[in-house]
Each structure stands twice: as C-alpha cells, then as structure tokens.
Design goal:
Strand content: under 5%
Shape: globular
Helix content: over 70%
Radius of gyration: 33 Å
Number of strands: 0
Number of domains: 1
Structural class: mainly alpha
C-alpha cells in the first residue's frame, strides 16, 4: 500500500559563486560594529608598544606625585609595618618555646609589653621624671662653663647676649629630648595609629600580602612573595639587633655611671638606650649629654664618663653592629647618615626613627631585583620559625 505522506521537499542547493564555493556567511551587525576600528586603535605593533611604555611612565609619574602628597600617611603606615614586624618577631621567638596559635602568641607579647611599661612607670617613672626636670639646668650650667673657658683661651669671642642665646637654643633641644625620653610626645594620634596598624599587621599579615600581590600581574606574584619574605626576615633581624643594642648600651651606661655616683645615672642610661635605636646620631647625642653631666661633678667624673662612652662605643661598633649587619642588612654608615638627614628634614622625629628600616628595605628590594635579572646570586633566607 503506498505511503500517503508526501515526500519532504529537498533543500535547495547552496548558492555558489563563480569559483564554485559557498560564499562566506555575513557576521551580525553588532559584532561587526564591535570589531570595527576606532579612533584610538593603534595597528602598528611598534607604535602600540611605545604607547604602552608611555602610559607606564605616566602612571609612575602619577604615583610619585601622589606619594609626595600622601607622604606623611604613607610614613605612618610604614611605621605600623615596622611595629608589626617587631611584634611578629616576638611572637615567632615565643613560638619556639610555647606551641600555641599565632593570635595567642601576639596577645602574650602585647600583654607583656603593657605590663612592663606599667611597671616601669610605677616604680621608676617618678625618679626619672625628677632627674629629667633637673637635666636642662645642669646642661645649661655646663654649657656656660664651656663657653667661658673657650672665651678665656681666645678660642671664640662671644658676648653675653650671644652666649645666652646659644645656651637657650641648646636647652630647647635638650628639653625636647627629655620630653621624648619621658614619654611626652606631641603626636599622640600618630603614635596611636602606628600601634593599631602594627597590631593588625602582626595578628595576620597574610591578607595584606595577598591583597598587594593581587594588584600585581600574575607573572610578578612569585617574585613579590619572595621579596616579601626577604623583607620581613631582614626587618625582624634588624629590629631584634637594635633592641639588643639598646638594652646593652642603656644598662651598661646606667650601671657604670652609678658605680662612680654620677648624677642622673638612670636617666642617662635610659637616654642612651633610647637613642641607640638611631645609628650614628644617637650615640653622639647621648655621649655629649653624658659627658656634660659628668663634668658637673668634677674633672675625674667627667673623664670617667668619657671612658664609659668610649667603651660602650667600642662594644657597639665592634660587636653588636657587625653581628646585626651580618644577619640583616649591611648598610654603609655614610649612607645611613644621609638617609637620616633627609628623612629627619622632611618628616621630623618620625622620619629620623624610620630612616634606617626604610633604607634596609630599599636595599633588600634592589638585591632581589638583581637576583631576578640574573646578575647576582644571593643566598635564600633561613628562618626556622
């Protein structure tokens, strides 16, 4: 029986051109418009490459201008990173003897620091504050004696008004230093922000590291991880060495001056310990103050203070500083001094304090860039913690 369903109509043969091939299908209008050349398209590969370089340089110039405008906030953030590295170093050191979580170790370090500060203020703060109040008068008297001696020996020719002006200016600087040692700092807000930022950085630095790495190209992220590791290790070792030097110098000077009954021995030890954080400049300032106070008790006491200062400088320059430089960053003294002058002039006391850590981080960055370019072969950091 025949099938009643009519046969399907055959599809018409595709249109062929002159060559016998099917003509190309026309693309949608939106796709053609999207792929059409625009007024900003650059077809020449060389011109395109140069345009990319120009945009990169413009971006760098813009970032430099922005960094100048935001220099002080960026310096506060860097100060928080330095304080965070200090807490992190304490937590890592504590982790070698106390197997607890990182947050607990950071908390223990912070509580220990607060307890020590409260103890120091309670038991030694009043005595040192009295000494700090008497220090400017003692230094003024010694400065007047020194100027009169120089005038008597015709080393300088000064009238009374000039002498009084010079001594007043010197006492203003010493008064600021005494206020700093006593804990009276004008920028309490800055100090508070540095402490808070440091605590956040120390509790969990990984999110901030991942955030910075995310803003970099994917191929640059392994280099950033390596750079971040080396910078953190160098910062911790540098700060640990600075703390050791501060404790050694402060305790040694306080005990040695106390043996000879030099007045204000505890305050002078505290000043020397605090200023030991500043290489080059700190030792000179604390030594001058110590010698002036020593000569207030006579020639023998002044010579004793000079001897103590020389011994402490020898220990610091030949034992502490070489060990710290070997383990962290070996920085040339002239380079450190130049960085301190620049940062101190631009940002005051905060810039002076952070000049040495910032210079160390710049050196680490340049070293890792040299390793990346294959010009040098530096050893990898060894951090068992």
């Amino acid at each position: 029986m025949p099938d009643p369903t009519p046969p399907a109509a055959e599809a018409p043969p595709p249109e062929t051109g002159v060559s016998g091939k099917a003509p190309p299908r026309r693309k949608p209008a939106k796709l053609r418009a999207a792929r059409a050349s625009g007024p900003t398209d650059i077809h020449d590969p060389m011109v395109r490459q140069e345009a990319k370089k120009a945009l990169i340089w413009l971006g760098i110039a813009g970032l430099m201008g922005l960094s100048v405008v935001l220099a002080e906030p960026l310096l506060i953030v860097f100060g928080g990173m330095v304080f965070g590295a200090l807490i992190d170093g304490g937590a890592r050191l504590l982790g070698k003897v106390l197997p607890v979580g990182r947050v607990w170790r950071v908390t223990i370090v912070l509580i220990g620091s607060v307890v020590f500060s409260l103890w120091f203020v309670t038991y030694a703060g009043t005595h040192i504050a009295d000494q700090a109040a008497a220090l400017p008068a003692t230094l003024q008297a010694q400065a007047m004696k020194l100027l009169h001696w120089a005038e008597a020996h015709r080393i300088v020719t000064l009238n009374t008004r000039m002498i009084q002006s010079l001594t007043e200016q010197a006492i203003i600087g010493v008064g600021q230093l005494s206020g700093y040692v006593g804990g009276v700092i004008g920028g309490m807000t800055t100090l508070f922000l540095i402490l808070v930022l440091g605590i956040y950085f120390a509790i969990d630095p990984r999110p901030y590291q991942r955030g910075l790495a995310w803003m970099l190209p994917r191929e640059s992220r392994p280099f950033f991880e390596d750079l971040f590791t080396h910078m953190g290790l160098t910062m911790r070792r540098l700060l640990f060495g600075r703390l050791i030097g501060m404790v050694v110098e402060g305790v040694t000077i306080a005990v040695a001056l106390r043996v000879y009954n030099v007045p204000m021995a505890a305050l002078l030890g505290l000043i020397a310990g605090a200023l030991a954080f500043l290489p080059n400049i700190g030792a000179a300032i604390s030594g001058i103050i110590m010698v002036l106070v020593g000569f207030s008790g006579g020639l023998d006491m002044g010579l004793w203070c000079i001897g103590v200062w020389a011994v402490v400088l020898f220990i610091d320059g030949n034992i502490i500083v070489p060990i710290v430089a070997k383990k962290s960053a070996d920085l040339a003294p002239a380079l450190v001094l130049a960085m301190q002058l620049i940062m101190g002039t631009l940002f005051g006391l905060l810039g002076l304090v952070l000049a040495d850590p910032m210079l160390a981080m710049l050196k680490v960055s340049l070293e890792r860039l040299a390793v990346r370019s294959g010009k040098h072969d530096l050893p990898a950091p060894q951090d068992p913690a």
